[in-house]
Structures are given as C-alpha cells and as structure tokens.
Design goal:
Blueprint: H1 9-30, H2 37-49, E1 54-58, H3 61-71, E2 79-83, H4 89-96, E3 100-104, H5 115-120, E4 126-130, H6 141-151, E5 154-158, E6 166-167, E7 170-171, E8 178-182, E9 196-200, H7 203-212, H8 234-244, H9 247-266, E10 275-276, E11 290-294, H10 297-306, H11 336-344, E12 345-348, H12 356-371
Parallel strand pairs: 2-3, 2-4, 4-5, 5-8
Antiparallel strand pairs: 1-9, 6-7, 8-9, 10-11, 11-12
Helix pairs in contact: 1-8, 2-8, 3-4, 3-7, 9-12
C-alpha cells in the first residue's frame, strides 16, 4: 500500500535543512531574538514580493487580522462584512474587538465571498470588509473594492492561504487597504511555529500597525495607543527568509500537481453530481489546498484514510452556524452555498513534493470509490 500523507513537512525541510540551521545559528549568536534585523530583512522581502510599500511582521496570521482591524478603528457598534466560509480567525477577530461579523454567502465555484451578497450586506454601521482568498485563490476583488469605495469602508484581505496568488496579475495582499499573511507551518510559506505579516501601501496605516504590535508604544514606554504583543520572533523570520527564496518554485510544484489532479480526475468521466474538481477563476491560484466536492464526502474520506491517504475537511461547519455566534441570529439555510460546501468539500494531499505515483494513488482511490457508487 502506497501511503500518501496529507502534508509532508519533513520532505520540504530536508531540502533546506542546512540553510535553515545556519540561519537559526546566526540568530542565536546575535541574541537579537524578537524583531531586529532578521525581521526587518524579511519585512522588506515580503513587501517587495507582494508589491507593497510596507510590511510589518507579527506573531501569527490571526494577529495580523486583529491588528489590521484595530488600525482601521474597528470597535463596539461597528459591523464587518466577511465570508461565511473560512477559518474561525476571520470572524473571531471581529468579535474580539466588540464588533459584529456580518456574513455573506460564497460563490459555488470558488468557495470565495459572493461580491453581490457582500454589497447587499452593507448598512450604516459597516466599517470594513474582510474578503478571504480561500485555498490559495483570490476572491473577486474589483466589485468588492467598488463597494468599499462607494461606502468609505476599509478592506482587509485575509490572504493567510494565498501568498503568491494574483488577481488580474496583482498580488494578493496589495489589493485592499491591508493584506494579512499567515506563516503557520503548513502554509505555502511556513515558519517553524506561528508567525504572520501585514502588508499595505498606506504609510500611516503601516506606522499605526507597527505601533500597535508593541503595546501601542511610540517611543518605548510611551503609549499613544492601546495595542498588544504581536511581535514576530527573529528565528521565525530568519527561517522564513531562507524559505522565501524557494517559494516560487514550490508554488510551481503545487500548480503542476493541481494540473495533474485536474486531468486525471476529469479523465474518470464522473458527473459533477458525483465529483467536482476545483474551479480556477483568477490569474494565479497557489493551491494551499486542493479541494474537491464529492457525493458522500464523509464516506469517501474514511475510505481514503483506510487506504493510507491523508485528507481533510476545510470546513465542516460554516461560520454563521458556529455555537459561539448563536446570538447573531443566523439559522441553517441562511447561507445555502456555504452550507452545501461544508457537507461536500474534501481536501486531498497537496504539497510540492508529491510524486506522480502518489497522485495516481489518490486519484485511483477517489474515482474507484465514487465510480463504484460510493
């Protein structure tokens, strides 16, 4: 039996181990462990990579979202429009600031927020919009930006899964007022622990975020703002600087593997009612996840695991139906596209080091199960 792990971080680390250890040793020798030159260097590189003027290293992708909304002045009484289908942090940071998340349903083809529904959700209390570039494909940004401009709203891109993705050849993170990246270890650009980055072309916002990440201090021990401890560790920045040199190549590997999945799954000839492969609508999808929609998804997932094939569900319950948001008043049926996706989506193994034999094993297991009426 060919075992195909869902993610294989060991394979990636093996290719860069010597460089990564040298970078860590450099930080240990300097004892500049939080912020400092390693973080500043990574900030410059990520800003350039994302076609942004400024980048601010922070402690996680979640904190990148949180500090961005803080910088926009989001607080009690405000509403923030976001997608109903994303990782919890997207909505959780809104509530932590005392604001109200207002959910918009998603487009069935891309899993990303439907811009028309986002536009319909605007009220006099709306302060910002947080579109998510889910699975590595940018949301349909131009109509979202048009809505924001018409109503004077801030736009924070949740690009946690989408570093290197593009929308009409413009990089993720550079499209709204602020972009947020996550460096969680399994991300396309992953640290050895938590880490994140905020990017922007607005100097005033960059300065405010830089202040907020250090308890609102400017200068040290003087606090014009109440911020938090959102600083990026130097060891994480040093390792990320090593990995960033390889990111385009790794992204190319992901895209090649996705193309192989597409062709081999399509060759099975299964109807869309049984199997739907990912739909690409934007100029560069970076495939943080390769997500199919399948009949009897849970049974298929169990079949794959029994065959030694890793898989995952992103996400089994939409945000508007999470127990902690019950007071918002949403009910089952309010976001039908997101709710359908929650019952059908299944992420298959996806990383640059996947071999053709491994992809063939996954495809045979998926199509064999579904083709036999699974």
């Amino acid at each position: 039996m060919t075992v195909v792990p869902f993610v294989d971080l060991k394979a990636q680390f093996a290719a860069i181990e010597n460089e990564a250890r040298a970078a860590i040793d450099r930080v240990l020798a300097s004892q500049r462990l939080i912020l400092g030159p390693e973080v500043e260097s990574l900030e410059r590189e990520i800003a350039a990579y994302s076609a942004c003027a400024h980048a601010i290293g922070v402690s996680s992708g979640t904190d990148a979202l949180l500090v961005s909304l803080m910088a926009l002045g989001v607080g009690p009484g405000d509403e923030v429009i976001t997608t109903a289908y994303s990782f919890f942090a997207t909505a959780g940071v809104i509530v932590r600031l005392g604001a109200k998340p207002v959910f918009a349903d998603i487009e069935p083809a891309t899993f990303n927020m439907d811009p028309a529904l986002a536009a319909a959700a605007v009220t006099p209390r709306t302060k910002a919009i947080v579109p998510v570039h889910l699975y590595g494909q940018c949301a349909e940004m131009d109509p979202i930006l048009d809505v924001a401009s018409a109503h004077g709203l801030g736009v924070v891109e949740d690009a946690a899964q989408a570093i290197g993705a593009t929308y009409k050849d413009r990089p993720a993170g550079s499209l709204g007022d602020i972009g947020c990246f996550s460096f969680f270890p399994t991300k396309n650009l992953g640290a050895l622990g938590d880490g994140g980055m905020v990017v922007t072309n607005d100097r005033a916002l960059a300065e405010r975020i830089g202040c907020l990440r250090q308890h609102g201090a400017s200068p040290k021990f003087h606090h014009p703002l109440v911020g938090g401890n959102f600083r990026l560790d130097a060891i994480q920045a040093a390792v990320l600087g090593v990995k960033l040199k390889y990111l385009n190549g790794w992204t190319g590997g992901r895209r090649l593997n996705a193309d192989l999945y597409d062709k081999k799954l399509a060759a099975a000839g299964l109807p869309e009612s049984v199997l739907r492969i990912p739909q690409v609508r934007q100029t560069r999808h970076v495939y943080h996840q390769y997500v199919i929609r399948a009949r009897r998804r849970d049974a298929l997932g169990e079949h794959l695991r029994q065959q030694g094939i890793g898989c995952g569900i992103y996400y089994p319950l939409p945000l508007h139906l999470q127990e902690c948001f019950a007071a918002l008043g949403y009910q089952a049926g309010d976001m039908p596209v997101a709710e359908a996706a929650a019952g059908e989506s299944l992420a298959l193994p996806m990383y640059p080091e996947l071999s053709v034999d491994q992809i063939d094993t996954v495809v045979a297991a998926v199509t064999g199960f579904l083709g036999d009426g699974g």
